[in-house]
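Progress note, sequence design subtask.
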């Protein structure tokens, strides 16, 4: 994947040729060109004065455009947060380059240090370089020596206070206090802004994607929650995100549903049938399909008529889809999900061409009447046409892939789908490469897979009676449990009914989302209301309480937002206390965390980080007075403003983190 340009400011300071300088050079050239053309025109010797004037105008336009983008880029880089890790990587990259100019692709490893005695960050490249020197040049150099050489070549920069060589060859980096302090002030003044992303990309995210007439189950809930956060993250990073609901709305089940509808509600063309429970309706039609020969025949005819777009059948199909759609929307409303519907049916017209394209390029084999495509590396072929001429899940996914690549011009496609469909998706992606729709070096097509949701008994998530759990019931139960919890903590005695209700919704839906997001999506995960509502440990309940408390600190000291804003501009954030220093650095790791997730799509890293931030904050709050009070009277005697600013910076980053996770804190809880 192309590397993001995270830190224009830092880049400007280093020897590599930054984009902005290219623009400046270009401007110089263009200016010279304009001057030349101007003179040319004045002399009146041009045979095509008009043409040159035109050219001149175009160049001026382009010059202005370049100037503007240069300015924008500059102001963005000043306001945005710095990714300290990549900043250090650039610095150490330059140092290694200077120390070992002819080493190709030397390993560049920079990580935050685990213990204060090892500094703030560590560069661990010396060990790797030592091995490379031994392997490629048969030079035996001990890593410590290499580390020293790297350290000597560190270019001038604004963030490193000093480095120390430790152990076999670690380079421990101590950051400059004034640098960290300045970054925190800038964060408070400008808000959380990520470093510029380079080219804005088109990102297509396929998520949620339940099936019409079938229950939207916990697997779909997982996809919905993870997908929504993924979209929010890419949007926050400045990309253009298309959120797609790949609804299963075109399968053969519609034949039996429509046939059943015709029997049950024959006047469906004029009156909207009251199918309250589409599940029961589906079950009944399925039973008839399996037991009544005549019905089965008619169901098949219905599929054919639907697929040939007969208006009456389209009407019936729409009615059925509408019932499901309304059910799905209830869930999306609760969880604040934004998504557009683009189900399998959307691609129906394209499927014929897809089959033809594979045939024309010689990839199709006929097997027992079916048209199949073998993809190198995958033992099971894709079936692109059934023997009865119908299309399959494979065909609609191939069509969707092509549409997303060629029509939507997606640079990054993400499929948030359960791990069970991994082979299917990988085969589809490989087929897309085989036929030349995309090059994985240019376009990123990723399956963001996730494991299954288990019940507390570690078995498939079911109700006590063994039925599948209806999502809407699950959300209802979450609400009820959240309210019980709030009442347990006697919050009903402190909060107004409106505040209590707001807290209930925030806790219930926040916890359900967070429980999912805080687990590595690749693992199976155990759904437990007790665990997710526990206000100790890495849960939304804990974080929401912590956040509300942090936000209240300044308020309780009678410091309003305006005063904080003023202080942010005027006060220096002192970071002398060990816990202030630890918290300050932790806050500034936010961009580094997000960048990692943009690459590996593992959102639990953000949850882990927010939890670390909250506990680091608690350590700070426990040992550093923000507001000093008279022991007897309880009156405020001193406000340590720089510490309130640290509280504020913590809350600002937490709020942004919540926003990406789709968690909505409330003012009081
Ligand atoms: N409707 C499918 C299911 O419920 C999920 C679709 C996922 N997206 C895709 N492009 N295949 O299993």
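Output:
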């Amino acid at each position: 994947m192309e590397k993001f340009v995270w830190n224009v400011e830092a880049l400007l300071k280093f020897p590599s040729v930054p984009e902005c300088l290219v623009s400046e050079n270009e401007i110089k050239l263009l200016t010279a060109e304009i001057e030349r053309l101007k003179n040319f025109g004045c002399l009146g010797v041009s045979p095509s004065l008009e043409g040159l004037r035109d050219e001149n105008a175009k160049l001026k336009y382009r010059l202005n455009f370049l100037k503007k983008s240069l300015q924008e880029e500059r102001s963005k880089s000043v306001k945005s947060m710095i990714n300290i890790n990549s900043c250090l990587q650039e610095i150490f990259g330059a140092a290694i380059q200077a120390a070992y100019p002819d080493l190709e692709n030397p390993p560049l490893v920079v990580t935050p240090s685990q213990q204060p005695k090892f500094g703030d960050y560590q560069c661990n490249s010396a060990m790797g370089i030592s091995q490379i020197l031994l392997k490629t040049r048969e030079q035996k150099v001990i890593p410590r020596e290499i580390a020293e050489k790297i350290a000597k070549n560190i270019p001038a920069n604004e963030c490193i206070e000093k480095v120390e060589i430790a152990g076999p060859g670690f380079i421990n980096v101590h950051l400059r206090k004034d640098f960290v302090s300045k970054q925190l002030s800038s964060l408070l003044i400008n808000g959380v802004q990520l470093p510029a992303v380079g080219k804005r990309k088109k990102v297509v995210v396929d998520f949620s994607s339940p099936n019409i007439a079938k229950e939207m189950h916990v697997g779909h809930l997982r996809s919905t929650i993870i997908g929504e956060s993924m979209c929010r993250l890419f949007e926050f990073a400045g990309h253009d995100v298309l959120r797609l609901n790949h609804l299963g709305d075109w399968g053969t089940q519609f034949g039996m549903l429509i046939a059943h509808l015709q029997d049950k509600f024959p006047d469906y063309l004029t009156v909207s049938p009251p199918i309250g429970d589409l599940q029961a309706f589906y079950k009944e039609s399925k039973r008839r399909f399996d037991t009544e020969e005549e019905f089965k025949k008619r169901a098949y005819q219905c599929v054919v008529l639907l697929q040939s777009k007969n208006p009456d059948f389209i009407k019936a199909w729409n009615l059925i889809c509408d019932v499901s759609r309304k059910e799905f929307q209830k869930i999306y409303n609760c969880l604040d999900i934004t998504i557009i519907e683009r189900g399998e049916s959307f691609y129906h017209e394209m499927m014929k061409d897809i089959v033809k394209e594979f045939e024309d390029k010689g990839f199709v084999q006929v097997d027992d009447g079916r048209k199949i495509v073998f993809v190198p590396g995958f033992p099971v072929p894709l079936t692109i046409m059934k023997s009865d001429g119908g299309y399959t899940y494979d065909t609609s996914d191939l069509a969707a892939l092509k549409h997303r690549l060629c029509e939507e011009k997606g640079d990054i496609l993400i499929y948030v789908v359960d791990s069970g469909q991994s082979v299917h998706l990988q085969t589809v992606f490989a087929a897309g490469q085989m036929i030349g729709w995309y090059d994985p070096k240019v376009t990123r097509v990723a399956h963001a897979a996730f494991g299954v949701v288990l019940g507390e008994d570690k078995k498939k998530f079911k109700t006590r009676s063994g039925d599948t759990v209806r999502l809407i019931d699950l959300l209802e139960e979450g609400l009820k449990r959240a309210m019980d919890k709030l009442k347990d903590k006697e919050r009903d005695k402190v909060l107004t009914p409106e505040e209590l209700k707001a807290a209930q919704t925030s806790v219930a839906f926040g916890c359900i989302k967070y429980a999912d997001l805080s687990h590595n999506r690749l693992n199976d995960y155990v759904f437990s209301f007790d665990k997710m509502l526990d206000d100790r440990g890495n849960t939304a309940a804990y974080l929401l309480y912590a956040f509300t408390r942090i936000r209240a600190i300044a308020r309780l000291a009678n410091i309003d937002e305006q005063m904080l804003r003023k202080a942010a501009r005027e006060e220096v954030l002192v970071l002398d206390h060990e816990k202030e220093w630890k918290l300050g650095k932790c806050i500034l790791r936010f961009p580094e965390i997000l960048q990692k997730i943009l690459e590996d799509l593992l959102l639990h890293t953000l949850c882990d980080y927010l939890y670390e931030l909250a506990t680091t904050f608690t350590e700070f709050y426990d040992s550093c007075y923000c507001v000093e009070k008279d022991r007897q009277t309880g009156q405020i005697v001193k406000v340590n403003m720089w510490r309130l600013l640290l509280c504020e910076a913590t809350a600002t980053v937490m709020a942004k983190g919540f926003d990406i996770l789709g968690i909505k804190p409330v003012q009081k809880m």
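Residues 206, 209-211, 246, 248, 397, 400, 415, 417 surround arginine (CB under 6 Å). Work on this subtask will continue into the next period as scheduled.
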